[in-house]
């Protein structure tokens, strides 16, 4: 029984050793001193996709890689880069995929912007008979 | 005409169903390729990861001959799986440099003692800074770099035995 418990404990402990023993990057979870810069960095982090857990933003994710990306974002903004410069720096390396704010003028991502408008018009067209005057045929 | 229009919602639903079903049956592959392939190695300079091997900077990757840059970590299981293949490539005369991702000198030394050390130089990237510069999204990854320091290929994931001939060919072509 004792051995079983010991085994059980080891199993619980394993995930903590699974990734890395290092402390996170300096600004992964530390705010910038300047509140305006911190706000700009935060807004950008909400719009950058985590490379590891791909449905989360780096602001949401606990993956070490996301922490490293947050630190990069804060360090670059503290060094005077604008959020858009940081975003393009990442897009240059990972493609539009990495940003949750896809460009309108791109061969792949324009439907994301146009489709909702088209659907809205389609819905209006479908519902057109129900607007306006009462119908005569009833 | 209206009689046929009646079927439109059903057709639309069919399309929607097909889209969702495909997504469930064949989950999309989430590998993010680096856009740095075809571009020169970004400038970087990393400290030595272990005492026995020198540090790594981007200047060390412009060798006049093709080289490999392997990104690995002692905490990464597939890195163990690819260790024999890296040793094989090294025995074939390939220069392999490495970036150790988020790692400590002791752990790296243990890892290399256990699984072999095919690396000429190892830089320590404790905050993934250079990994992000490279457009790399995980470990292990291997970049084929030509003699002028241009990235010609990115291998994502561990190098399996069947990948070795391909890597050797890429190195040969990059000459």
Structure notes:
The complex is a heterodimer of chains A (about 140) and B (about 180). Chain A is mainly alpha-helical and about 140 residues long. Chain A has a domain at about 25-100: Helicase, Ruva Protein, domain 3, CATH 1.10.8.640. Helices cover about 55% and strands about 0% of the residues of chain A. The longest helix of chain A has 17 residues, at about 1-20. Chain A is extended and about 75 Å long. The termini of chain A are far apart. Residues about 15-20 of chain A have low confidence and may be disordered. Chain B has one domain (about 45-175): Glutaredoxin. In chain B, strand 3, helix 3 and strand 4 form a beta-alpha-beta unit. Chain B is elongated and about 80 Å long. Chain B starts with a helix and ends with a helix. The model of chain B has no long low-confidence stretch (mean pLDDT about 95). At the A-B interface, helix 3 and helix 4 of A face helix 5 of B.
Number of domains of chain B: 1
Share of residues in helices of chain A: 40-55%
CATH top level assignment of the domain at 23-102 in chain A: Mainly Alpha
**What's the count of strands of chain A?**
0
Report the end-to-end length of chain B measured between terminal Cα atoms: 65 Å
Strand content of chain A: under 5%
Strand content of chain B: 15-25%
Number of helices of chain A: 5
* Overall 3D form of chain B: elongated
How is this structure best summarized?
The complex is a heterodimer of chains A (138) and B (175). By secondary structure, chain A is an all-alpha fold. Chain A is 53% helix and 0% strand.
Give the topology, please.
The complex is a heterodimer of chains A (138) and B (175).
Chain A: H1 2-18, H2 35-46, H3 64-78, H4 83-94, H5 110-126
Helix pairs in contact in A: 2-3
Chain B: H1 2-5, H2 8-25, E1 45-46, E2 56-57, E3 67-72, H3 77-91, E4 96-101, H4 105-115, E5 122-125, H5 129-133, E6 141-145, E7 151-156, H6 164-173
Parallel strand pairs in B: 3-4, 4-5
Antiparallel strand pairs in B: 1-2, 3-6, 6-7
């Amino acid at each position: 029984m004792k051995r079983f418990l010991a085994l059980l404990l080891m199993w619980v402990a394993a995930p903590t050793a699974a990734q890395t023993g290092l402390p996170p990057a300096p600004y992964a979870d530390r705010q910038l001193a300047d509140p305006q810069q911190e706000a700009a960095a935060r807004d950008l982090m909400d719009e950058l996709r985590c490379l590891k857990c791909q449905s989360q933003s780096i602001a949401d994710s606990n993956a070490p890689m996301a922490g490293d990306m947050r630190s990069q974002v804060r360090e670059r903004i503290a060094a005077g880069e604008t959020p858009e410069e940081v975003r393009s720096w990442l897009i240059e390396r990972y493609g539009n995929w990495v940003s949750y704010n896809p460009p309108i003028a791109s061969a792949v991502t324009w439907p994301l912007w146009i489709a909702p408008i088209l659907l809205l018009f389609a819905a209006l067209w479908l519902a057109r008979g129900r607007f306006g005057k009462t119908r005569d045929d009833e | 005409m209206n009689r046929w229009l009646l079927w439109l919602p059903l057709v639309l639903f069919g399309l929607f169903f097909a889209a969702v079903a495909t997504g469930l049956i064949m989950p999309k592959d989430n590998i993010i390729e680096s856009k740095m392939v075809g571009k020169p190695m970004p400038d970087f300079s990393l400290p030595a990861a272990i005492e026995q091997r020198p540090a790594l900077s981007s200047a060390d990757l412009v060798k006049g001959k093709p080289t490999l840059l392997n990104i690995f970590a002692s905490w990464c299981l597939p890195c163990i799986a690819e260790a024999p293949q890296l040793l094989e490539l090294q025995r074939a005369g390939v220069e392999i440099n490495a970036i150790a991702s988020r790692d400590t000198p002791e752990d790296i030394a243990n890892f290399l003692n256990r699984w072999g050390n095919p690396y000429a130089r190892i830089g320590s990237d404790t905050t993934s800074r250079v990994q992000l510069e490279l457009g790399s999204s995980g470990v292990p990854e291997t970049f084929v770099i030509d003699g002028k320091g241009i990235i010609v290929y990115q291998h994502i994931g561990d190098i399996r035995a069947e990948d070795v001939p391909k890597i050797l060919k890429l190195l040969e072509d990059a000459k």
